[in-house]
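Hi R.,

Here's the chain you asked about this morning:
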Amino acid sequence: MVLAVLAGQRIGALQTLLPLEPLENRILACHALGITRIGLITQSERLLTGAEAATLAALVARRLAGEPIAYIVGRREFYGLDFAVNAAVLIPRPDTELLVELALERLPVRGRMLDMGTGSGAIAVAVAHTRPDAGVTALDVSGAALAVARANAQANRAAVRFVQSDWFGAIAAESFDLIVSNPPYIADGDVHLAQGDLRFEPAGALTDHADGLSALRTIVAGAPHHLAPGGWLLMEHGYDQAAQVRALLAAGGYSEVRSWRDLAGIERVSGARAGGAT
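And here is the predicted structure, written out as tokens:
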């Protein structure tokens, strides 16, 4: 039906003909036609070819079926940088920029940072791009995710060392000034896993297949063995998990335990310092 409507139409008419929100219409039109937003204006009188109409109709059909825009176009902006994404990694979200900002505030000059469960590499690449003096290491258990992250680091000219590891397994006795993570924290069976974009994202990066806290527990328990004295651990978590994560940190002997709110006012990140803080 969409193809029949689009065939032979002017490019300038697409915004009203496509059945999505205006922003999504524009993004998909630009992607299908290989032009910029300005191109949509300057070429507004040009008629769509049959091939262009078919390509655009296929993209619109994928979006109408619920597939995230980021996967359809293969890209997402994060912290002012362009990231390639595919179904092997989570789509970077604006909420996670809070974790980057907190990390940058706490990373000392020429400091060493570890990003655990890096996915697309968004956190590690954003920090390394902003702080080229830092030594940034990023790990993930997924080889497919690491391939995406490496490509993103190269594309953004960020020096990041990547390690395939199941949490702390492959980093032995290495020590860092800062450890950050956006781990799987959605509880198994949570209704949100069957809604919206989450239906298409890798389940292993979303849920721990348990109570939503198992990955956070692993990180809290293992981080002191890999943090320099006074080093920070920062973790993103669910909208209703801050109190539980603070309790884990307090029970683990950390100091300066606290949580930070995102732009929506939700306690999105919790963290603390390892023993020996001054």
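One quick note: The longest helix spans residues 50-64.

Cheers,
M.
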